[in-house]
Design brief:
It is built from nine helices and six strands. It has two domains: about 130 residues, Rossmann fold; about 80 residues, Orthogonal Bundle (DNA polymerase, domain 1), CATH 1.10.150. It has a six-stranded parallel beta sheet, with helices on both faces. The chain is of the alpha/beta class and about 230 residues long.
Amino acid sequence: MKIQHVFFDLDHTLWDFEKNSDLTFQKVFDKQQVQVNLQDFLTVYKPLNREFWKLYREEKISKEALRYQRLKKTFDTINYSISDALIDVIAIEYIEFLPHFNHLFDHTFDVLDYLKPKYQLHIITNGFEEIQTKKMQSSNIHHYFDKIITSESVGVKKPNPKVFEHALAIANATKDNSIMIGDSVEADIEGALQVGMEAIHCNFEGEEVTATNFKSITSLLEIKQYL
């Protein structure tokens, strides 16, 4: 069946999470006078953040624990003394300021302009519901998308099949006429494949992938080869 619906992940796929996150931390630390070397902080924080997000996807920690623990463990690791109260302030301001940075991956507008006349476009995201729409509005891509499905609105997170089944139902789509595009093999690609959707992996980091049951791209422009 011909593809009619294209589902995108947002962070790390269209919206340049790492660049926007780095800028957000710089703003928060300047505002709160946190005297750490930003690169030293980020070197420790980024892998820890990925670990905590994995726990969050697997329903092993709450959103509140994720927001606090990723900061607490990073500051502890770099031996920076900081109060719990200030960590809470940083966690709140990080979420508040993050959507106002709007860097997208190269060719995002080009690809969305190409796809929009041909397909219905949607977002499926594990990101926090209160900021995902703001990110899309700030970066001027919100209007491209018909449906925005957050895992919080479903009650489970990608790769849980319920997220993809809910998204298909909301979009009035089927697994046979839909494709998922995202950066996470575990959350986006395997999640889509297990409900019978096609998938395209955005492998912008050049990670080694041995699976052959999905397409892989290193630039958003390559989407045009397949759609």
